[in-house]
Specification:
Blueprint: H1 3-16, H2 20-45, H3 51-60, H4 62-65, H5 67-73, H6 83-106, H7 109-116, H8 119-130, H9 137-154, H10 162-184, H11 190-200, H12 202-209, H13 218-244, H14 247-254, H15 256-269, H16 275-306
Helix pairs in contact: 2-6, 2-13, 2-14, 2-15, 3-6, 3-12, 3-13, 6-10, 6-11, 7-10, 7-15, 7-16, 8-10, 8-16, 9-16, 11-13, 14-16
Length: 307
């Protein structure tokens, strides 16, 4: 047995002894960091290239980023057990990502990250409206607190910024996408889900970018590759984390993105976080954490009754 084989064997033994919940938490943290790095690169490049062209390359380069995995696993990686659900996810995600990318170009990193945390709030509201789920006083108060935090961060009393509105709308659509992704992880691999995400969104982003296409230089292309790599890693690792762990457990660790966003925003774009960001962010994080915890508890109670 050579050195590489021995190392791989020892590494697998170490990984197998780590609790799966801890692995899921670590994956969620890495996924959040990759998302922030991608958003930072998109914001930086949006001053030189139209945001729709960036969105197109973000999707088009996915197949090249995942090329090593595709070559290893072959055509079976394209096989999905739920094609209709993949289509619904692609359609919803196309609009969500376009709105989010446009919002990135005009919104401070800390603010867009905080507004992105409203996803669980929208998910709960959708469950009440479409799934007729009943919520009691405590979750209703959590929703009100979360909405209050969103208003504080967006500050409509000063001005209603299009970027902030698009980020909130994108979060609403992303809450729907999360439901699709969670269902897809039951039958499809994380890589398959990410692959369909990238390839499926190429037509929509291409037609949006077509009127704004311009030649790019080598430096810009390298940044676009970085965006594709970090974005694909973020999606794939997040999909794996959701498959391994419960959302209530993982969500609080995803909030580390706010810290990284504020630090990178200050270092690269001289964006000084306002006190309203921290106050509103605290309310949103507290609200969404409680909603996720309560959802997990209710599922356990329902499961125990069935058993």
């Amino acid at each position: 047995m050579n050195f590489i084989s021995t190392f791989n064997l020892k590494f697998r033994n170490i990984i197998s002894n780590i609790p799966i919940s801890l692995i899921a938490i670590f994956m969620m943290i890495i996924s959040g960091l990759c998302f922030v790095l991608m958003h930072s690169a998109v914001k930086y490049l949006s001053t030189e290239i139209h945001i729709f062209e960036i969105a197109f390359f973000r999707c088009a380069l996915v197949i090249f980023v995942l090329a090593p995995v595709i070559m290893q696993q072959g055509l079976k990686i394209f096989k999905t057990q739920q094609p209709k659900l993949q289509f619904y996810r692609i359609a919803t995600n196309s609009v969500a990502m376009t709105c989010f990318f446009y919002g990135i170009s005009t919104t401070p990193l800390g603010q867009l990250t905080t507004l992105g945390f409203t996803v669980p709030i929208f998910a709960t509201i959708l469950a009440v409206i479409f799934m007729k789920e009943k919520i009691r006083l405590r979750r209703t108060l959590a929703l009100i607190i979360g909405f209050t935090g969103t208003v504080i961060v967006a500050r409509p009393d000063i001005s209603i910024e299009l970027g902030a509105v698009l980020i909130i709308f994108s979060s609403f659509l992303w809450s729907i996408c999360l439901v699709f992704i969670k269902k897809l992880t039951r039958t499809d691999s994380a890589v398959t889900i990410s692959l369909y995400f990238g390839i499926g969104m190429i037509p929509a982003t291409f037609f949006l970018a077509l009127p704004f296409f311009e030649m790019i230089n080598l430096r810009q292309f390298i940044i676009l590759i970085f965006i594709a790599i970090t974005g694909t890693l973020a999606q794939t690792i997040m999909n794996s984390a959701l498959k391994k762990g419960d959302l209530a457990l993982l969500l609080p660790f995803d909030f580390l993105r706010l810290i990284w966003s504020v630090l990178i925003g200050y270092a690269l774009f001289a964006e000084e976080p306002k006190i309203t960001l921290w106050i509103g962010g605290f309310l949103i994080i507290g609200s969404t954490t409680y909603i996720a915890w309560r959802e997990s508890k209710l599922k356990k109670i329902a499961k125990s009754k069935i058993e």
